[in-house]
């Protein structure tokens, strides 16, 4: 929580200039990709959305309390033109910057996030720490530039996959010795970009034209069970992982692929559905 608070303060101090993701990575003590994911789980919005809303909220003060030109305010908060600033302002406040300055409507700003320590009953989390050698996975992937695009695109990716011939092609690649599951894997790239891979455990590289085989590196893993309907149970379990598990243990998440394992023979809308969440970890000294 101390790291999270330091990052919020850093962002607040740099709303009018460049926010250095390498600095945030340093303060967070995890990779940019992992922090973006953790921030989204804990706050309910992406880091980019939070920064945008805080900058626009701060710009409202400048509109009403200073004589600065709208174009200068736009540049001050990182917009390349008054038009792009006005579009974002209108989207957040449902009014144009010029009207907000002239008409003094009552507008609700987006406040700085605050960190509160809440004492509540301990959460009993069932998890397994396990070590696995390299794992070969065959399937298909899509690439996303950031968490925001990925969160919007992944459900559509699954829909297209489930309704296409690729589903049977991928399932036919599954090792007969592996669990009867299909995996959704996040593969971090540089910054907050990542690939999302839908696939199955396999014993050898695929020869199919539309498929590819990847290798997950050997690692220690923390494995959690999300029991209940998809995606609600998964969201709640991720929240418990980042709010309770990591703060209360000596483990840290690696910058490495993490994945969810979905049983092929259970209804994802069932209250008894079990999704396994696999997170690569290392133990702090």
TrEMBL record:
Residues 5-103 form the HTH araC/xylS-type domain. It comes from the Bacteria. GO terms for molecular function: DNA-binding transcription factor activity; sequence-specific DNA binding. Keywords: DNA-binding, Plasmid, Transcription, Transcription regulation. InterPro entries: AraC_E-bd, Cass2, Homeodomain-like_sf, HTH_AraC, HTH_AraC-typ_CS, MarA-like, Reg_factor_effector_dom_sf. The keyword Transcription regulation applies. PANTHER family: RIGHT ORIGIN-BINDING PROTEIN. This is Transcriptional activator, AraC family. It comes from Lactococcus lactis.
């Amino acid at each position: 929580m101390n790291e999270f608070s330091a990052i919020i303060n850093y962002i607040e101090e740099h709303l009018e200039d460049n926010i250095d993701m390498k600095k945030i990575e340093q303060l967070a003590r995890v990779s940019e990709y992992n922090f973006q994911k953790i921030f989204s789980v804990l706050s309910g919005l992406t880091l980019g959305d939070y920064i945008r809303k805080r900058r626009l909220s701060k710009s409202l003060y400048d509109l009403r309390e200073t004589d600065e030109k709208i174009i200068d305010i736009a540049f001050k908060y990182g917009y390349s033109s008054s038009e792009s600033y006005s579009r974002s302002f209108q989207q957040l406040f449902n009014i144009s910057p010029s009207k907000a300055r002239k008409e003094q409507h009552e507008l609700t700003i987006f406040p700085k996030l605050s960190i509160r320590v809440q004492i509540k009953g301990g959460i009993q989390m069932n998890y397994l720490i396990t070590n696995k050698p390299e794992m070969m996975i065959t399937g298909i992937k899509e690439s996303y530039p950031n968490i925001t695009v990925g969160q919007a695109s992944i459900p559509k990716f699954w829909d297209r996959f489930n309704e296409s011939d690729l589903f049977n092609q991928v399932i036919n690649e599954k090792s007969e010795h592996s669990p009867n599951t299909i995996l959704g894997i996040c593969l971090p790239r540089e910054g907050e970009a990542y690939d999302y891979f839908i696939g199955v455990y396999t014993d050898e590289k695929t020869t199919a034209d539309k498929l590819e085989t990847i290798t997950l590196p050997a690692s220690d893993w923390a494995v959690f069970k999300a029991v209940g309907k998809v995606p609600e149970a998964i969201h709640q379990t991720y929240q418990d992982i980042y709010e309770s598990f990591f703060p209360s243990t000596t483990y840290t998440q690696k910058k490495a692929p993490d994945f969810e394992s979905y049983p092929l023979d259970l209804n994802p809308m069932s209250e008894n559905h079990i999704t396994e969440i696999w997170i690569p970890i290392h133990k702090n000294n």
